[in-house]
Amino acid sequence: MLILTLNTYFVLINCHNKVYLNVLKAQFEKIPISYDSSFYAFLYENNSFSAPWHFHPEYELTYILKGEGIRYVGNSVQEFKAGDFVLLGANLSHCWKDVDTCNEGVKSIVFQWNDSVLGENWYNKDEFKNIKKLLNNSLQGIKFNNFETSTVSNNLITLLNKPPLEKLLSFIQLLENLSLKNDFELLTYEGFLPNLNRKANDRMDAIYNYVHKNYDTKITLKNVSSIVSMSEEAFCRFFKKSLNKTFFLFVNEYRINRACKLLIDTNKQVKQIAYKCGYESLPFFYRQFQKFIKCSPLEYRSKHIASKTLKK
């Protein structure tokens, strides 16, 4: 059993309690860690995940209680859902975009802490060598797999009742447990370097929002480059430099993630799903699906239906 406890300051907030330096399109997020607590922790509950593409120097551990959509971490684009458990390293840009069908609101528990949580250079001591490796890996983003969802969520929600010292010791044990876990995936691609330029992050936030709203229609370089006031050539160079991938590779990655969700959650035909996700050519959709998912759409649907049946 995984025991999740932290030495935290825990509050219920909505998005307006977050402190951002840029009012409209924040990139740098200021984490209000108090002097009398080792952590900042909060239960986020709102109609949607409203934080823009942003970064901060603190580590962040996020557990999704409710909601689904697309998670951006560095140059990674992946579907997220309830039960997802993600650790992000310092200054790793990220945001969560819930889907339009998520009309029951979203809910997550987030923990944030800095390098001095146990004093200066604590993770360089021999006792914490496994944790140090975990935190180094978190610079690429880590998604932990195969947790007992009900156990994790219950432990996180009830952590407030524990005494401060017990919370701190349990937190260190949690990091140790995570550091020994073999079932995880690194989120960003090899060679990705964080871009901490605020103007660049503003542009990326605008691009993500555009794709999020228009993925089911025809997207052109002319249209998307105009929203960030760049020429098409400059836009292509900028995007490739920022994410180490081309813009249309990113668009196809996003669309295929949305297609995967529709294959699992609906009985729509593959052709309907392809058109719903912005593909005008069915053969091209099949090629892109095979490229990203390594199987056909029907194989993917069958595998996940079988998985759901086994869990029941």
Describe the structure.
The protein is an alpha+beta fold and 312 residues long. The chain has helices at 129-137, 149-157, 164-179, 198-214, 221-227, 232-243, 247-265, 270-276, 282-293, 297-311, and strands at 9-13, 19-20, 29-30, 40-46, 59-66, 69-73, 76-80, 85-88, 94-98, 106-113, 142-144, 184-186. It has 10 helices and 12 strands. Strand 6 and strand 7 (76-80) form a beta hairpin. Helix 1 packs across helix 3 and helix 5 (221-227) crosses helix 6 (232-243). It is globular. The two termini are 21 Å apart. Mean pLDDT is 83; it is low at 1-27.
> What is the CATH topology classification name of the largest domain?
Jelly Rolls
Give the CATH level 1 class of the largest domain.
Answer: Mainly Beta
Mean pLDDT: 83
CATH architecture of the largest domain: Sandwich
The portion of residues assigned to helices is: 25-40%
Major β-sheet strand ordering: 1-4-10-5-8-11-12
Q: Which value, in Å, is the CA radius of gyration?
A: 20 Å
Query: Could you spell the SSE succession in H and E letters?
Result: EEEEEEEEEEHEHHEHHHHHHH
* Helix vs. strand class: alpha+beta
Separation, N- and C-terminal Cα atoms:
21 Å
The number of distinct β-strands equals 12
Please sum up the structure shown.
The chain is an alpha+beta fold and 312 residues long. The protein is built from ten helices and twelve strands.
Write the layout of secondary structure elements.
Elements: E1 9-13, E2 19-20, E3 29-30, E4 40-46, E5 59-66, E6 69-73, E7 76-80, E8 85-88, E9 94-98, E10 106-113, H1 129-137, E11 142-144, H2 149-157, H3 164-179, E12 184-186, H4 198-214, H5 221-227, H6 232-243, H7 247-265, H8 270-276, H9 282-293, H10 297-311
Parallel strand pairs: 1-4
Antiparallel strand pairs: 2-3, 4-10, 5-8, 5-10, 6-7, 6-9, 8-11, 11-12
Helix pairs in contact: 1-3, 5-6
